C-alpha cells in the first residue's frame, strides 16, 4: 500500500502525527479516515475531557455525529484514557464532578444503541498507534475484498 494516506478532518484541533502521508480535509464522519475510503472507515478521537463533556453534557449534538459514524461499515471511537483509572477515581480532576459510572454508562450506551465501539486506549500515544493500525488493516481488507481475496469476497 504505497499510496496509503490518512485523512485528518479539518475540525480536528489536536491532530496526531503519523509516519505516512496525511492530508487535511473535511470528513463526512470522524476525525481520521483513509484517502479514498472516507465513506467506509472513520475513527473519532476523544481526549478524556472531551469524551466526558461530549457524552454527558452535549449528547444531543453528539448523537448526530454518532448517527453518521453508525452509517459506516468500519468505525470506532478511541478515548485517550485508561478505563481502569477512570473507574478507580484517578481521573476525578478531568471528570469535573461526573461520576465514573455515568461515563461508563454513556460508553456502553453508545456501543449498544449506536453500534459504534468505544475503545479505551490508555494514552494519546496508544490511541494514535491503534488508529494507525486500524486504518491500515481496514484498508487492506477492503482492497483484498475488491480483488476477490478476502473472506467476504
Q: How would you portray this structure in words?
A:
- The chain has six helices and six strands; from the N terminus they run E-E-E-E-H-H-E-H-H-H-E-H.
- With 153 residues, it is an alpha/beta fold.
- The strands form two sheets. The chain has a three-stranded mixed β-sheet, covered by helices on one side.
Q: Which consecutive residue ranges, at least 5 long each, have pLDDT under 50? A: none
First and last CA, distance: 19 Å
Give the percentage of residues in beta strands. Answer: 15-25%
Label the CATH architecture of one domain. 3-Layer(aba) Sandwich
Major beta-sheet overview: 3 strands, mixed
**Shape, please?**
globular
Question: Could you report the average pLDDT, rounded to the nearest whole number?
Answer: 93
- Tell me the strand order in the biggest sheet: 2-1-3
CATH topology of one domain: Rossmann fold
Structural class: alpha/beta
Which key terms come to mind for this protein?
single chain, Rossmann fold, 3-stranded mixed sheet, 153 residues, alpha/beta, 6 helices
Give me the secondary-structure topology.
Layout lengths: L4 E4 L12 E4 L7 E3 L6 E7 H10 L1 H12 L3 E7 L2 H5 L4 H4 L4 H15 L3 E3 L3 H23 L7
Parallel strand pairs: 1-2, 4-5, 5-6
Antiparallel strand pairs: 1-3
Report a brief summary of the structure:
With 153 residues, the protein is of the alpha/beta class. 45% of the residues lie in helices and 18% in strands.
Amino acid at each position: 500500500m504505497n499510496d496509503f494516506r490518512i485523512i485528518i478532518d479539518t475540525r480536528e484541533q489536536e491532530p496526531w502525527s503519523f509516519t505516512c502521508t496525511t492530508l487535511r480535509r473535511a470528513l463526512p464522519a470522524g476525525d481520521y479516515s483513509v484517502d479514498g475510503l472516507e465513506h467506509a472507515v472513520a475513527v473519532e478521537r476523544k481526549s478524556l475531557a472531551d469524551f466526558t463533556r461530549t457524552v454527558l453534557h452535549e449528547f444531543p449534538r453528539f448523537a448526530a455525529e454518532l448517527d453518521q459514524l453508525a452509517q459506516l461499515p468500519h468505525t470506532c471511537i478511541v478515548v485517550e484514557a485508561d478505563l481502569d483509572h477512570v473507574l478507580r477515581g484517578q481521573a476525578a480532576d478531568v471528570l469535573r464532578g461526573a461520576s465514573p459510572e455515568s461515563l461508563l454508562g454513556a460508553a456502553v450506551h453508545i456501543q449498544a444503541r449506536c453500534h459504534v465501539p468505544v475503545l479505551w486506549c490508555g494514552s494519546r500515544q496508544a490511541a494514535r498507534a491503534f488508529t494507525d493500525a486500524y486504518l491500515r488493516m481496514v484498508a487492506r481488507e477492503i482492497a483484498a475484498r475488491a480483488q476477490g481475496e478476502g473472506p467476504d469476497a
